[in-house]
């Protein structure tokens, strides 16, 4: 947390007032409201179990839990924490009544079926609908195009670069956690065989993409052990510039990465897709990208690089 505080304060010095919004922030300001820090649910299994039962004494009867490595951590929680919670619950003097809950007031999950004989316009009027344009993500993301653009620089420096576009992996395998699917098995093998990884992601709402998260969840907990990693991100606003250090870097570190070099955030407006499908990068951004790629290359030596984009 102290490292993050230093990073955001350093970033603030580049603002117009030379200070930024985080300069005088307390420890509590730097912690997300949904983090375990806020509820005190951080510590040994015994400490967490005691805290859960303390909340139960206050009338809390439901916890929404999140896990970084879902399968391993759910199993750990079930074996190490829940039995302690049950033991402490048995020692409570009397059952704690649950808090009253208001009746649900949700709308019907589906609108009434339209009359197949009615025209499209009349159906919209009947059901109160307005036509809304729907924009789907492109088959090849701007982030993936940027990584393919950088592949050439790494190849010229003597590295064997293997591209991996996460968008090409079957959605059913990713979302269904199908560890045995051939495409997932191949992706895991590519990660295992690589000496270094370039991990690229668009940033949505200050976090890396759910597509990348789906793939990382299917990799072994220490899949990046001994590997050098270059994190890259793209986004529409500089408000997301800290997403690499605050959201992506901790995940890569938890997966055992030996060396996570300096990453870089590139604004969407600095990436232009050319008619031939390639990209050109604005001068300032291109210079910064070349610098971090060269640092990554120097840290690797002559090795195999997996360039994964989501």
Polypeptide structure, described:
This protein is an alpha/beta fold. Helix content is 41%, strand content 14%. The protein is built from 11 helices and 9 strands. β4 (228-235), α10 and β5 (259-260) form a beta-alpha-beta unit. α3 packs across α4. It is globular, with a radius of gyration of 24 Å. 22% of the residues are buried.
Estimated radius of gyration? 24 Å
N-end to C-end Cα span: 27 Å
Structural class: alpha/beta
Tally of strands: 9
Subunit arrangement of the protein: single chain
Q: Give, in order, the helices and strands.
A: HHHHHHEHHEEHEHEEEEHE
Q: Which runs of at least 5 residues are low in confidence (pLDDT < 50)?
A: 105-139
Q: What is the makeup of the main sheet?
A: 7 strands, mixed
Shape: globular
Give a brief description.
With about 300 residues, this protein is α/β, with parallel strands linked by helices.
Identify the notable features of this structure and list them briefly.
seven-stranded mixed β-sheet; 9 strands; 310 residues; single chain; alpha/beta; two-stranded antiparallel sheet
């Amino acid at each position: 947390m102290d490292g993050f505080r230093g990073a955001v304060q350093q970033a603030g010095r580049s603002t117009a007032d030379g200070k930024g919004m985080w300069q005088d922030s307390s420890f509590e300001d730097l912690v997300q409201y949904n983090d375990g820090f806020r509820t005190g649910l951080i510590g040994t299994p015994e400490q967490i179990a005691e805290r859960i039962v303390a909340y139960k004494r206050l009338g809390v009867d439901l916890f929404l839990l999140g896990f970084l490595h879902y399968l391993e951590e759910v199993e750990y929680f079930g074996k190490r924490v829940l039995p302690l919670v049950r033991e402490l619950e048995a020692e409570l003097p009397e059952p704690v009544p649950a808090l009253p809950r208001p009746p649900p007031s949700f709308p019907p999950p589906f609108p009434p079926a339209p009359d197949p004989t009615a025209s499209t316009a009349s159906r919209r009027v009947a059901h109160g609908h307005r036509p809304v344009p729907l924009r789907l993500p492109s088959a090849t993301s701007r982030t993936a195009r940027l990584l393919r653009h950088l592949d050439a620089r790494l190849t010229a420096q003597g590295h064997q670069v293997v591209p991996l576009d996460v968008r090409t992996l079957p959605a059913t395998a990713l979302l269904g956690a199908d560890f045995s699917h051939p495409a997932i098995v191949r992706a895991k093998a590519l990660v295992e065989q690589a000496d270094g990884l370039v991990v690229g992601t668009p940033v949505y709402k200050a976090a890396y993409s759910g597509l990348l998260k789906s793939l990382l969840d299917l990799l072994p907990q220490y899949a990046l052990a001994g590997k050098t990693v270059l994190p890259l991100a793209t986004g529409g606003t500089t408000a997301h510039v800290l997403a690499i250090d605050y959201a992506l870097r901790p995940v890569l570190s938890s997966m055992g990465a030996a060396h996570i070099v300096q990453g870089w955030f590139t604004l969407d407006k600095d990436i232009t897709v050319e008619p031939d499908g390639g990209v050109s990068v604005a001068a300032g951004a291109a210079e910064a990208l070349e610098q971090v790629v060269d640092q990554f290359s120097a840290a690797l030596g002559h090795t195999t690089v997996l360039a994964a984009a989501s």
